[in-house]
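Deviations from the work plan: none for this task. Representative record:
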Amino acid sequence: MIEFLAMGGHAPYVWGSYGVALLAMVVEMVLLRQRRKAVNRRLARLARLNGEEGGATSPDV
Amino acid sequence: MAEQRVQWFKFASPPNFYDLAGRLAPWFGGLAAILFVVGLYIGFILAPPDYQQGNSYRIMFIHVPTAWMSMFLYVLMAVYAAIGLIWRVKTAEVMAKAIAPTGAMFAFLCLWSGALWGKPTWGTYWVWDARLTSQLILLFLYLGYMALHAAIEDRQRAANASAILALAGVVNVPIIYFSVVWWNTLHQGASITVTSAPTMETVMFVALLVMTFACWMYAIAVVLWRARLELLERERRAAWVLERTGEKA
Amino acid sequence: MNGLATALITLLRRDLILALRRRQDALVVLGFFVVVVSLFPLGVGPDPQLLRSMAPGVLWVSALLATMLSLERLFSDDFRDGSLEQILLSPQPLSLLVGSKILAHWLITGLPLVLISPLLGMQLGLDGTEILILMTALLLGTPILSLVGAIGAALTLGLRGGGVLISLLILPLYVPALVLGAGAVDAVMYGSSAQAHLSLMAALLILTLLLAPWAIAAALRIMLD
């Protein structure tokens, strides 16, 4: 196992490549999740505002 | 409205796209995860060390797929941008914008893994090798596209303007590539001769192929996900968005 | 047809007269080119051999940067005083009108760079044929810089921080012109012929001439929509 992880002395290069690739993908997904939350919050607020207007003809819709 | 004209292309109407993408994205994501595990298993456990480069050649399994993906995604982005520009298909505009960050990420990963592969192979992190150099310029093209998109406030105008830029870029990409290759061969004396990829055994080739498919599936999943959010933001006043947020909130 | 020719000539003459009135704009670009090239020896040292081998790249990169500097003004003045809108409304094909504006831009900024380049080439130790090739390459290359740059200028019209954005958008697209232009001078420097470089540069110029005006016209329509 240790031999496998050592990658014949090339460990920093091999695991550096794959580690950063994994990190980049995880970061991308976390950012997307955060953005989804932000979008949902914003839309919920918008829906609430529309609801308060009570179906009156709002110029936005 | 423009949507009427493209009714035949059912997928293109924003609500249909939103629903379909929402249903498909998890499948692509799951497939990507499975393929990554399989690809890494083949690449790291089944494939033997290379007799010349030892284990460092295993970086290839991430380096080459990311290189392919970044180039392919740029072309795909330009195709979507052109569809959006010519036929005013809103979902195509959204797709073009959604592809850019993932494409830029792949370009960056390709450069990063290329540098880390270069150190044990050529003895230096960065070589002005034709492929690495054109990859760097591709990353700049992605960054320019995203910067222009971000700089224009009006969403429709931003989509159209950056579509022009993407098209100018995609015409240029092959010219840039060939000029850089040419530049590199002319200056061969100054730069280190690039060792060719290790002689491919079948296992290595299979690993490479599986990893490429994994990156593909990952890109599709992430891009669809981002395109959905983009669409929600753009169409936040449309009735179909209000219907759908009602359920979720 | 006649109306079109008159329109193109009128537009060209107007741009040239305006540039003549604001001479300092063109002179600043030229001055920038000269100063940047002259700073290189101070940065890398006076070794003649080193300067000579760097000269093609230094001259070309400086020409790219100088062109970049001039691009921001290409459409923005006309945009501000409303004449760009008039041009867009005119019945003549916009891509041709745009071509005339770019011809004016090249005459004002590109051509002076070509004309001053022998002086700077000698400063960096290039000899006769090399300077001749440098001028030919610049003569073929600077119109490409104006044409491609105009796409960026049109796309950033009216944006805050447009000037910086142009560089990010356009500099990567300048790579082929840079490689071919500097490569042409390199080729004669190392004793081979520059013909291949110059032919490819000419081909690139023709391709750019065919495609860029269309893209610029489309970009202007989008940004002024």
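Chain B touches chain C through 27 residues (CB under 8 Å).
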